[in-house]
Amino acid sequence: MGKWKGLFFGLLALNVVIVIVIVTALFKVPTEERDNPFTPLDQSGVELKVVSSKGELTKVINNYLEKESKNNPLDYEIILDEEVLLIGSITAFNRKLHLEMKFNPIVTPEGDLILEQETISIGQLMLPVPFVLTYIKENYILPEWVVIDPKEELIYVSVTQMDMKSDVDVKVDTFDLEEDNITFKLIVPLTK
């Protein structure tokens, strides 16, 4: 019986050790940090991605321009094609003249849009870009977030500075007209 008694206590000791190891493993706090597979939320807002087509964005832009330019003598619309087209009329010498401007859009790292001037025509005349941009800058009311730079022949559209009815901020992510790939980031604030 002595041999069986020794084996019994050996088996009992082994069971107690296994139970202690399992309990210790269950309640042990990990000492090393693990990578969180989820991106932590920024406490100031959540970023949402919005995808649009040229046609849909053209409708939104022209609707916005129509509302904002009711008291502005510049009559125009934007068409997104292979480039950004501004087509409309401008009043000069008490007459309405056909205006057409073509721009190449460039997205800035900040999420704004630079429109590099390619061509400008008023009526049948191809006019110097700095002259027309200076005329528009000095004679027409533009939103604060649109800056015309006649010397550089560009228009800076500070999308990130637009006044939105909600607290949502907007950034341009991609603006590839040839591939019809237009995406924006909406930053929606978190409230506590």
- The CA-CA distance between the termini, in Å, is 72 Å
- Return the average pLDDT rounded to an integer: 77
* Quaternary structure annotation: single chain
Order of helices and strands: HEHEEEEEHEEEE
Q: Based on helices, strands and strand pairing, what is the structural class?
A: alpha+beta
Main sheet characteristics: 7 strands, antiparallel
Shape: rod-shaped
Fraction of residues in H or I helices: 25-40%
Number of helices: 3
Q: Count the strands?
A: 10
- Amount of beta strand: 35-45%
**What would you report as the Rg, rounded to the nearest angstrom?**
32 Å
Q: Which consecutive residue ranges, at least 5 long each, have pLDDT under 50?
A: 31-42
Count the domains.
1
Pick out its properties.
192 residues, 38% strand, alpha+beta, 7-stranded antiparallel sheet, 3-stranded antiparallel sheet, 3 helices, 27% helix
